[in-house]
Amino acid sequence: MASCCPCPFSGRRSLLLLLLLRVCLAREAAATTSHLSGYFGTKSRYEEVNQHLLRDPLSLGPPEPGHLLPSAACVPLQLRALIRHGTRFPTEKQIRKLGQLHRLLRGQARACPAAQQLARWDMWYQPDMDGRLAPKGRLDMERLARRLAARFPGLLAPQRRFAFASSSKHRCVESSGAFRRGLHLALHSQLPAADIENEKTEINDKLMRFFDYCEKFVTCVEENTTAMYQVDAFKEGPEMKRVLEKIAATLCLPVSDLNADLVQVAFFTCSSELSIKNVNSPWCSLFSDDDAKVLEYLNDLKQYWKRGYGYDINSRSSCILFQDIFKHLDKAIAESKSSMPISSPVILQFGHAETLQPLLALMGFFKDEEPLTANNYKKQMHRKFRSGHIVPYASNLIFVLYHCDHAKTPEEEYQVQILLNEKLLPFLHSEETVSLYTDLKNHYKDILQNCHFKEECELSKTNTTSTDEL
Ligand SMILES: *[C@@H]1O[C@H](CO)[C@@H](O)[C@H](O)[C@H]1NC(C)=O
Ligand SMILES: *[C@@H]1O[C@H](CO)[C@@H](O)[C@H](O)[C@H]1NC(C)=O
Question: What is the pLDDT of residue 198?
């Protein structure tokens, strides 16, 4: 699409323009891949998990094994989507670290080609971009909306009631606006009035940022300086040391000038330039595939201990969201049974990787037999827990409830499917991609009945000793 073209010539009419445009598009096509792009973890582009989108951003991709209802007999009643915001700018903290690294390289006096090339690189990130949604992030959302409307035309239809909710973070509210715009485009085939993006999106941090409200999580994990000891140990470990030494040599710097955080910032800059500007930046040439795998593991380790299976409270704190999903599914079924219109047929909620990852862990997805630790990097080479595959930018987890006619038993009348990043996610209790709603509820009955946010998140009165239970 010409609109993403990084060349600055749009708008002028001439033959030259056509030629330039061609060069531009060729450059863009060539730049859309990097040998490192599979290793960016939570900073991965959505296109990494759906490569067909690199060719056609509105395509629904090749047909999948396992079939997507709706069939003639099954009609979708309710769709609940949990959506991570689209591609964003780096946070202020990352931008400051990058500034620090860039200054270090500019101050480098020795003749060193790699360092000089990076010193000449234009440091265009400003601290006030702080984690905001990037223009590409708006596109991520618009296009996701259009694809979902194409996939579920019966549900995402004009005149439907859409319930939008978002985390209070700017990038999530903006994502919800961009999604709304894409949805309008899909349903009405015309551009919406400018104010459509500001229509009522409910801010709901209790559901989208449950982790902030969970005292036990905040105290025992988030603000606990020793909770990330596996991550810290890996930063000092042999794999990371090898990467540091290599990068220091390339940049003609003493290894003592670098640390894991600075190298990680260089790696993230490579990913940002690719995901935001669609260019293969000189920062990428610092890293080999093997380096990238080490840095991906570092990112995954942090996700694992802070948002995944590392500590039970990470996932238990999401049971408030999990239960809300089932509450609305139950309500839709009750309404359907009494032949009432479904009050919330489409629920669209915008949050963070930190919203999706704990929920997926609560449900038991992507769990490896052994924990990810500082010293089992090699053993975890083929791990399931790879955040780049699970929660890239714009990642989405969708629950679809169906009503099926001609059911032989009352249980068969209501069925569910789950899609992660627009692909059917097989249920853990059956390995099938469709489940009777009663079977799904039965599988998760312990969480549904016994996980109470308030109790789970309460810091036990018996001070520090109780946190050992983590
Ligand atoms: C911090 O984390 C460590 C490691 O999990 C744990 O042993 C300790 O009890 C935690 N401290 C607090 C205050 O939660
Ligand atoms: C918790 O610890 C603090 C200081 O360590 C102590 O003063 C307080 O009495 C303790 N509270 C309980 C309920 O044990």
Answer: 67
